[in-house]
From TrEMBL:
It comes from Coturnix japonica (Japanese quail). Residues 10-36 have a biased composition (Basic residues). This is Core Histone H2A/H2B/H3 domain-containing protein. GO terms for molecular function: DNA binding; protein heterodimerization activity; structural constituent of chromatin. It comes from the Eukaryota. The keyword Repeat does not apply. It is found in: Chromosome; Nucleus. Belongs to the histone H3 family. Keywords: Chromosome, DNA-binding, Nucleosome core, Nucleus.
């Protein structure tokens, strides 16, 4: 068979409909997710939920007023009985104790999480809490750990 003359070859190329370019190997994958250090997303969520402008749960989902205070109030009364019996507490005093203890524990767990992240772990361990308390200089509360 003889090859077609050069002018017919050009016409055949022009008349052929264009097909979409085929994807190259490896281009069909999803875009790579950005690298995040372990625990940084968790820390961001902690900060977001702690911000005063946003409640972690919607108002309708919150328990009845005082329902969260009752277990804490029982704990306070139980601990106080070891020091003196027949103690009375104002409700505002129990609220202040609860807010202060929650703030302390949240800060301690933030520092504990940073210690775990520094050790290239995501899970916190008792040694992380001990290190965080030692760095902070917490002297009292020996019954915690």
């Amino acid at each position: 068979r003889t090859p077609p003359p050069p002018n017919q070859k050009k016409e055949r190329r022009r008349l052929r409909p264009h097909s979409p370019p085929r994807p190259r190997a490896g281009h069909g994958r999803r875009q790579k997710k950005p690298h995040r250090y372990a625990g940084t997303v968790a820390l961001r969520e902690i900060r977001r939920y702690q911000s005063p402008r946003e409640l972690p749960m919607p108002q309708a989902a919150l328990p009845a007023p005082g329902a969260r205070r009752l277990p804490f109030q029982r704990l306070v009364r139980e601990i106080a009985q070891d020091f003196k019996t027949d103690l009375r507490f104002q409700s505002s005093a129990v609220m202040a104790l609860q807010e202060a203890s929650e703030a302390y524990l949240v800060g301690l767990f933030e520092d504990t999480n940073l210690c775990a992240i520094h050790a290239k772990r995501v899970t916190i361990m008792p040694k992380d809490i001990q290190l965080a308390r030692r760095i902070r200089g917490d002297q009292g509360l020996g019954f915690l750990l």
